[in-house]
Amino acid sequence: MSSARSGLVCVVGSLNDDTTLRVEALPAPGETTLTTGPRLSSPGGKGANQAAAAAVLGADLGCRVAMVGAVGDDEPGERSLAALTAAGVDVSRVARRADDGTGIAVITVDAAGENTIVVDAGANDTVAAEEAASAVADLAPAVVVLQLEVPVPAVAAAARAATGGGLVVLNPAPMPADAGGVRELLGAVDVLVPNRGELGRLAGRPEPTSAAEVTDCVAALDFAGSVVVTLGADGALCFEKGVERGADPVAVDGERVDTVDASGAGDVFCGCLAAGLAAGEPLVDAVRRANAAAAASTTHHGARLTV
């Protein structure tokens, strides 16, 4: 990795305004459920959450973080940008749209910390392929982090723009109903970070429930890069590039914590993984660090890693 790229993480993705509601149990279809505590309003979005996590961890690793995306010209957009700036993220390449509101997400969290999330994309849907590619090319980052809360053409353009040694990390979430477009992205990706459900859909198989089934799904992918499958409280499985598909992965055990809110754990994992990779850590070491940070993030309310 060249010294010019060393230490810079670029996140291309979403910025949202989150409203979190706590309930005893997640409502069934047609059921009305009352909250059990005060609602929490906070800046969010998968991309912004990942950027914030990368910046918090990156402060100790010598990494810098830049965010590429779009918000509305409104108060939630101002809050989103201010929160990222306070975390140490460069937001100069986040566009402000006069005709579109900032994305919003409504998150419901039950007593066990499990959650459901509904997102209205708002300005996130306006991120264009040309502006994503231009930002990545100008920044020349060590690591580009991508998810699917902005249009797939913008994600694909950003991945293609990361030439000359930058690593492309794709968190394929939220997975669209048709996974075909995501499969087409894989040729430009270096590290794929799905959960079990996303992995199953990418492989065209049912969600794997065991390590052996996860291994079979990874082997079925038309993908030559590294795969890190997140398992929630059970940790992660690492399939490194160059290791024969079908071989046993490196298992990173889960951290046992008292979970309060798991809604942002996957984003914390991806952001911290990117920071570790940008700092030059081997993949498995970066996964171990990310796994510990993600577990710690579930012990407090909200979707973001805090200092």
Q: Could you describe the 3D structure shown?
A:
- The protein starts with 7 loop residues before the first strand and ends in a 10-residue tail after the last helix.
- It has one domain: Ribokinase (UDP-N-acetylmuramoyl-L-alanine:D-glutamate ligase, 3-Layer(aba) Sandwich), CATH 3.40.1190.
- Helix 3 packs parallel to helix 4.
- A hairpin with a 5-residue loop joins strand 11 and strand 12.
- It has a nine-stranded mixed β-sheet, sandwiched between helices. A four-stranded mixed β-sheet has the order 3-2-6-7.
- The chain contains nine helices and 13 strands.
- The protein is of the alpha/beta class and 307 residues long.
Let me know the average pLDDT. 92
> What is the helix/strand order?
EEEHEHEEEHEHEHEHHEEEHH
Q: What's the CATH topology name?
A: UDP-N-acetylmuramoyl-L-alanine:D-glutamate ligase
Report the CATH C-level class. Answer: Alpha Beta
Record keyword descriptors for this entry:
four-stranded mixed sheet, globular, UDP-N-acetylmuramoyl-L-alanine:D-glutamate ligase, 9 helices
